[in-house]
Amino acid sequence: MKVLVTIITLLAVGAAAKENQTLDGCQMECGDIPILFPFGAGKSTTTGKKCFLEETFRVTCVNGTLYSGKIQVLSINIVEGQVDAMVSVAGVCVFSPPPGSQYIIKNSDADSIVLTSDYSFSVSSKDNKFITVCCDSYGYLNSFDDDTVYSTGCLTRCYGNTEKVVDGSCSGIGCCQVDIPPGMRNISIKAFSFENFNRSSWFNNCSYSFVVKNGNYTFSKSHLENLPYKVVPVVIDWSVGGETCEASRNRGTNACKGNSTCVNSDTGYGYRCKCDEGFQGNPYHPDGCTGNSSIIMKLLYA
């Protein structure tokens, strides 16, 4: 009788992978939203040190709602390097004054919205669309990157005629949308009107512009009279470091911990950390990514 022993080494993920998401002594959740390092709120009750990697990643928890600055955070994704957030809609309205006077323009909330102001954050080009809703208006999405300024946007005109405006269609009449170029950061959104809506003010006196997560906005003709949303969901990319992987390693400041790989950000600023194959967890956490080695022995008898 022969005995054949085959030794197979496997990497089984340990329970510790689920535990090393937040620094010791730091708030783990806000409401039902996990606060994952490099993001953090306040200081550790254990060490007294800050709970976030950089000031950029400081968040606050107010009555169970998570905020980054003034923007509400819905989720933090470590693997993709993204944050889901709620961002305000930019709008401008025209209201008719008493007879004999000129039209008065009044902002509905704000005709210009600052979406991101830190270079570590940029609007995800693959997960969002830029949209303008109105019959005679246009909107801009502006990016300020060092001394470089560039914009994208779209316009929609009806000239007082709503026959071609179709529910569910955002193809340029009543509603227009465009893709967002990659790497847009330090963002502002601006809404404008053509001729103070003088051809459409009887049914449409407001223009709205916003960035929204794909699949989260459906146009309705009723939105020409009143857009029911003040904020919309947006996907924001984030990166750490402000320099390349190589530069951060040379300076000894690289944030990627054990069993992880540094990858230069595709947004053109900083880098991201990813767990190596066979490991999982949080590559930014001091404990790094984790995995347990186990040996399975199969005895085959012949």
UniProtKB/TrEMBL annotation:
Q: Would you indicate the residue range of the signal peptide?
A: 1-17
This protein's UniProt keywords: Disulfide bond, EGF-like domain, Signal
- Where does the record place the EGF-like domain? 241-290
SS bond list: C256-C273
What PANTHER family does UniProt report for this protein, alphabetically? OSJNBA0016N04.9 PROTEIN
Its name, as the record gives it, is: EGF-like domain-containing protein
Please spell out the taxonomic lineage of the organism that makes this protein: Eukaryota, Viridiplantae, Streptophyta, Embryophyta, Tracheophyta
